[in-house]
Amino acid sequence: MQAYEDSEPIVRIRDLKKDRVNFVLDNADLAFANAIRRVVQADIPTVAIDMVEIEENTTVLPDEFLAHRLGMIPLVSVNCDEAIRYSRECTCLTGCQYCSVELRLDVSCHDNRTMEVTSNHLEVIPPMNGENDGLPGEEITKRGEDFGHPVGKNDPAVQPVLICKIRKGQQLKLRCVAKKGIAKEHAKWSPCSAVSFEYDPYNKLRHTTHWFESDERAEWPVGENAKEEEPPRDDEPFDFNAKPRKFYFEVETDGSLGPQEVIMRGLAELQTKLANLILGLKAPPDVDMMNGGGGDPGMPPTNGHTTAGGWAGGGWGSMSPTGGGWGNGGSAGGGWAGGTSPAQNGGGNSGGWATSPAQNAASGWGGTSPSQNAWGSNTSPNSGATGSGSTWGTGVQQGWASPSQQASGWNV
Amino acid sequence: MNAPPRFELFVLDDGEKPVEVAEDTKIPNAATFKIVKQDHTLGNMLRAQVLAMPQVLFAGYKVPHPLHPYFLLKIQTDGTATPQAVLEQACTKLITTLSALEAKFKREFSFKDVEGTVAEDPYGATGTGGQAWGAGRDYLDF
């Protein structure tokens, strides 16, 4: 317990390839490591084909079969956070250039041989100006050149994904709309094709039971990761207090995102989840604070977001250039993008997530000016609400605002 | 046909609170947090972190039904801090840990880049997109 409190995880990348990373996470908790595994598998947005309009299908495969196969094709989704919106957050009715990528496929076979329709036949239709209903945005400029293209298209080193085989006289013509999503909605949006996760290769903790015929050691050979750990001695007693601390990961992506982006986005996503929870916890006690503690005199009652006002400006690793909104697209209507004027935010508090003004621009937690930070510690005489302020104060002292520790700054 | 949209599993409805606190009426210093639109990813991590704090007597979480996108986190403290405060501290601590880990990952990735152990394109089989990413906003641009 004690060791857990005052230690930080250590990471060592053993192998980094263009589609996979193998690393060892040491000095971490099982639940923490598992959260990283879960978040990279299920919570990172990518683009995938979500709607297919079939114009002509004389192949042997039925339409829905093809639509399903098309959905599974990995599409290049680099910088997905900024380059595309969720269609549920877009103002358009049926999909526009800001929340979708259009792909077309038109193949017919005129030879006397079986022809393979592959992901290389999918052509991305460049976004057209004019005919869209979405609010204008900068999404398209953030896209890489091959955003939305099938992974490995026209790369001879990468085998394309086979969609269907057609014979002479058969034709396949269709239009696909790719949308952004996460793997909790459908596994096709997962950037990871496989994530391996191992701990305790010698089974010292006895988290699993090895069934064996006669000799456990011989029938259960240890894997590569066992080289990282001491083999147990034969006379070693079982340590029932031991906990797993060292985890062996291999994150393999399907090519839609690189392994580095997957890991970094995963960590940022976890922080966003936690930060939203803190905000959720903070918001309701505000009522009690007003009744009991007399409230924060520096907090103007007109501030609609009450305690949340202080979060504005910094934007928690928000990707949006406007600095608003917790990485959720930076919508101006989003709750946390409130005050840009210092008057709106907790008055005289001079503390906050970033203590040095110079650091503000870089730190995800920082406000844009020192006076904007409302979550001050109790150092400010103006912050009357001692009860709820104190926890934040400790948070600050724990070093989020330390200049060396650039919190979760995606928005550099 | 009438299936609810799947994103309701992880997107908060309009005006929906991410967390509801119910104080326990029978156990002192205990509260149950209903954290909506979250799952084991957060639940187990929080549970472990809360449990590691010395003020905490009990912490546990459950997902009452796999089709209902929320979990319950129950915390009992020894009275020196409220369950809310403890949970907040746990979140704060986890964020600190995660950002430290992020920095370490960043360093490790940059070492790997420098060493040149990566094949031509470190950003996946993305061709020019990977380069566009590298040229534009890079994680190492700190």
TrEMBL record, chain A:
It comes from the Eukaryota. This is Insert subdomain of RNA polymerase alpha subunit. It comes from Leucogyrophana mollusca.
UniProtKB/TrEMBL annotation, chain B:
This is RBP11-like subunits of RNA polymerase.
